[in-house]
């Protein structure tokens, strides 16, 4: 969170808390009812009248990584008599780590990605965005004031090639442009948790399947940053004590369209890590033999269970780095 015009009743940091908003009626602090969201004071014109139509509050959020935005969710959960009547969203790309003053300067160009749109109380509003350029920050404007529980900005990460060239890094990580492209089951938690930043603190922050009662096994597929060679696989079962997989198998795929990995023929997949037993509640690290080029991986868990984190450490091939550089240039401001 960078800055907000006002956060009198509830602080801006609540907007990006993980999980859905909660509410406890008749829970009062020294400024009134406690809300799990961002809430500004009531705006007033001189003399006590209603604010002008253009008078509004705003908040600026730095995204977790540069990305091309595909959708924005403005959730007014539990704000029933104090929600804004409308909102709009702008986005910009700025190098480095600019502060609020720099983001308000003439050198930063903000582009509207969600036009001013009506809001209702206690509802999640989904706005589709058709943007071809990457952004690093978004600015939510609310008209004229009120409360928003959660702000979600969905998109595809565009990693900076300058931070990846010549380095070993996690090729599966969301912040580096990796993503889940398929899975067999996500009953308890979503597979994207397995490639999310940080450590899993509890089992609900990993990927866990239901108990399998038929032959076979569960699996997930990950599209990597770009074509690369994986040197080390980290398969972490931390937090999964009575529900970890008994074994795993890791396979690779080298195909131009990594996001179409679920459509690949069985013969196109090759072993990176043969079926290997796992322990509960343990970070496992495996050095992978060979130097096969990979664009996607499939993790098979036998027969089912939970994986806290999957990390695939390696480096980009020359053509993989070229592809990352091309996408960075193609999604740049003004390109």
Q: If you consult CATH, what is the topology of the largest domain?
A: Jelly Rolls
Low-pLDDT runs: none
* Total domain count: 2
| CATH homology-level superfamily of the largest domain | Galactose-binding domain-like
CATH class of the largest domain: Mainly Beta
Please summarize the sheet with the most strands.
8 strands, antiparallel
**Which CATH architecture of the largest domain?**
Sandwich
Mean pLDDT: 94
Elements, N to C (H/E): EEEEEEHEEEEEEEEEEEEEEEH
* Helix residue percentage: under 10%
Number of distinct helices:
2
Describe the oligomeric state of these chains in a short phrase.
single chain
Structural class of the helix and strand makeup?
Answer: mainly beta
Q: What's the Cα radius of gyration?
A: 23 Å
Strand content: 35-45%
Describe the global form.
globular
Q: Give the termini distance in whole angstroms.
A: 27 Å
Pick out its properties.
2 domains, Jelly Rolls, seven-stranded antiparallel beta sheet, globular, eight-stranded antiparallel beta sheet, 21 strands, 335 residues
């Amino acid at each position: 969170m960078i800055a907000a015009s006002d956060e009198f009743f509830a602080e801006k940091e609540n907007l990006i808390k993980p999980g859905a908003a909660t509410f406890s009626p008749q829970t009062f602090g020294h400024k009134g009812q406690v809300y799990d969201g961002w809430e500004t004071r009531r705006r007033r014109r001189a003399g006590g009248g209603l604010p002008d139509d253009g008078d509004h509050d705003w908040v600026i959020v730095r995204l977790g990584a540069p990305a091309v935005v595909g959708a924005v969710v403005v959730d007014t959960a539990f704000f029933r008599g104090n929600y804004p009547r409308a909102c709009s969203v702008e986005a910009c790309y700025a190098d480095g780590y600019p502060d609020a003053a720099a983001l308000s300067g003439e050198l930063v160009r903000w582009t509207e990605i969600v036009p001013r749109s009506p809001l209702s109380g206690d509802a999640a509003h989904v706005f589709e965005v058709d943007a071809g350029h990457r952004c690093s920050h978004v600015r939510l404007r609310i008209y004229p004031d009120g409360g928003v529980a959660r702000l979600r900005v969905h998109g595809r990460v565009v990693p900076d090639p300058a931070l990846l060239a010549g380095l070993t890094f996690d090729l599966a990580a969301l912040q580096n442009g990796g993503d889940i492209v398929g899975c067999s089951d996500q009953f308890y938690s979503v597979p994207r948790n397995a490639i999310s930043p940080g450590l899993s603190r509890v089992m609900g922050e990993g990927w866990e399947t239901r108990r399998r009662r038929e032959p076979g096994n569960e699996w997930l597929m990950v599209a990597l940053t770009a074509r690369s060679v994986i040197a080390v696989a980290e398969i972490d079962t931390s937090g999964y004590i009575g529900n970890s997989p008994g074994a795993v198998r890791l396979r690779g795929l080298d195909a131009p369209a990594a996001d179409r990995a679920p459509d690949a023929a069985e013969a196109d997949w090759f072993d990176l890590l043969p079926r290997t037993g796992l322990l509960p509640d343990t970070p496992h690290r495996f050095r992978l033999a060979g130097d096969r080029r990979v664009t996607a991986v499939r993790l098979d868990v036998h027969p089912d269970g939970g994986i806290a984190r999957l990390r695939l450490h390696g480096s980009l091939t020359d053509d993989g780095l070229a592809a990352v550089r091309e996408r960075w240039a193609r999604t740049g401001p003004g390109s």
